[in-house]
Write a structure and sequence with these properties.
Length: 300
């Protein structure tokens, strides 16, 4: 079987604190949000991940029930990675309370064919040499930069670290990154020139409620707006965006349409807590049409 999308990384449990209320645990990370966004577009999806022996049959069943293939999710003796995420004063702090072992060569050996592979990192959970190995596959390769630009302090709080692997970046079709992550990679200002120097063919710079900048080597840079909606929980919105983008991109080759579909799916995610809502196909298309009409080209 050929999958539309394979997502590689750690499935995590999230405890989310917002406005004084803690919710969780809920399953999270790019493996969940990118996969379910792709499933909302009727894509076939395989997750390649490591979880702990504490990961329950109910959690496996929850993922499988949503149409995501789970046979490459392997159990480890170390516990499932767990995040405590606290939103306040317009920002967030994250603390890792337990951490699963990184994925290994065995996890990605003999992967089935796929149109796209997304390396959805949360915390350096996939070695860079293995990521480079995936670049040799006949698939669109995408990377979530956050895992390589994070480190933990002594109390488990997530901090920023410098990272830039030129060989890996040049092998990517798509890079998803935030502005703080770009600074960790040595890019102080987002311009068409600074993005062009990084290496990937397509770069998404997520900016929260302000929307997303998408730069393409072939088409230049554009601002894709966020759909105006009530934000209850922004967790996973960027991951959903890239999952929906990849599926639409490999199907159509239309950069701006794919970016608008990604932004549309992300708008549904933020309206509920956890990975609870990704929109119906008609809802996604309706919002994507609205977003596409408001995409503007960047001049610098």
């Amino acid at each position: 079987m050929k999958y539309d999308l394979v997502v590689v990384g750690h499935i995590v449990r999230d405890y989310i604190s917002r406005r004084g209320k803690v919710r969780g645990p809920s399953l999270g990370g790019p493996c969940i949000y990118s996969s379910l966004a792709a499933r909302a577009l009727d894509a076939s999806v395989l997750v390649v991940s490591r979880v702990g022996e504490d990961f329950t049959r109910k959690e496996f069943a929850w993922i499988a029930k949503r149409g995501v293939a789970v046979d490459r999710i392997r159990t480890s003796s170390s516990p499932t990675t767990c995040f405590k995420i606290d939103y306040r004063n317009g920002g967030r702090t994250m603390k890792v309370t337990q951490r699963c072992e990184p994925l290994s060569t065995n996890d990605v050996r003999s992967l089935p064919t796929s149109s796209a592979v997304h390396i959805g990192l949360v915390l350096d959970d996939f070695r860079e040499d293995l990521a480079l190995r995936l670049a040799k596959r006949d698939s669109v390769l995408s990377l979530e930069a956050q895992g390589y630009t994070r480190k933990l302090d002594g109390s488990g709080l997530v901090r920023r670290k410098k990272w830039n692997n030129a060989a890996l970046l040049k092998s990517l079709e798509v890079l998803k990154v935030s502005e703080p992550e770009l600074r960790a990679m040595g890019v102080q200002r987002v311009t068409t020139r600074s993005l062009a120097k990084l290496g990937p063919r397509i770069i998404f710079v997520t900016q929260g409620a302000k929307g997303t900048i998408v730069w393409s080597r072939d088409e230049g840079a554009f601002r894709i707006p966020a759909y105006p909606t009530r934000i209850l929980d922004p967790t996973g919105a960027g991951d959903a965006l890239v999952g929906a983008f990849l599926v639409t991109w490999v199907r159509t080759g239309d950069l701006l349409r794919a970016g608008s579909v990604g932004s549309s799916v992300a708008s549904f995610v933020v309206e509920r807590f956890g990975p609870a809502n990704f929109g119906s196909s008609k809802q996604i298309e309706r919002r994507a049409d609205w977003i596409l009409e408001r995409v503007v080209r960047m001049r610098s």
